[in-house]
Amino acid sequence: MKMKMKYAVVLALVTFAFVGCSKDDDTNPTSDKGVLKVTVTAKGYTGEEGSTMSAQVIGSNGQNPTLWKVNGVAGTSGQSIYDLNKEYFAGGKTAIFESSSSYLAATVTISAAAYSKPFTLVYKIEQGGKVIVDQTKEILPNTTPTVLSFQY
């Protein structure tokens, strides 16, 4: 009986040794996700009183805020939130946010609400050159405001 118990203990220890000591453990996750590109269009949006339309990006490389280009113009060092609001989108404009380098984490938030005139929200998110979100949403008056949040 004692011999069987010893074998069971040795077998358990050997099993835990193989399971607990893997060379494949990723102790330093990679921060190289590639560039994140966000394109937002508010087709038919007039910016009327009572309506809202905004797009915001924020990111970090783990130590510093991610620098973003907004419509091709680079942000400033230390800027952490990049936000375009209803005044920008009035007239159905398109906004393009693009991280200037790799990032560790990023959040994209898009908010839209129509007061009396409906409009169409078109948004696309690309990560490392691959499209991961490509959607169109009708924003109708007298409905709950739309708030979309994506985290990468």
Features:
152 residues; alpha+beta; six-stranded antiparallel beta sheet; four-stranded antiparallel beta sheet; 2 helices
SSE inventory with pairings:
Blueprint: H1 2-20, E1 36-43, E2 52-60, E3 68-70, E4 73-74, E5 81-84, H2 86-89, E6 94-99, E7 105-113, E8 119-127, E9 130-139, E10 146-151
Antiparallel strand pairs: 1-6, 1-8, 2-5, 2-7, 3-4, 3-6, 7-10, 8-9
What this model shows, in words?
With 152 residues, this protein is α+β, with helices and mostly antiparallel strands. Helices cover 15% and strands 43% of the residues. It contains 2 helices and 10 strands; from the N terminus they run H-E-E-E-E-E-H-E-E-E-E-E. It has a 6-stranded antiparallel β-sheet with strand order 4-3-6-1-8-9, with no helix packed on it. A 4-stranded antiparallel β-sheet has the order 5-2-7-10. Strand 8 and strand 9 form a beta hairpin. The termini are far apart.
Quick structural gist:
The protein is α+β, with helices and mostly antiparallel strands. 15% of the residues lie in helices and 43% in strands.
Number of E-type strands:
10
First and last CA, distance:
56 Å
Query: What percent of residues adopt helix (DSSP H or I)?
Result: 10-25%
Category from helices, strands and their pairing: alpha+beta
Biggest sheet, spatial arrangement of strands: 4-3-6-1-8-9
Tally of alpha and pi helices = 2
Instruction: Give the SSE string.
Output: HEEEEEHEEEEE
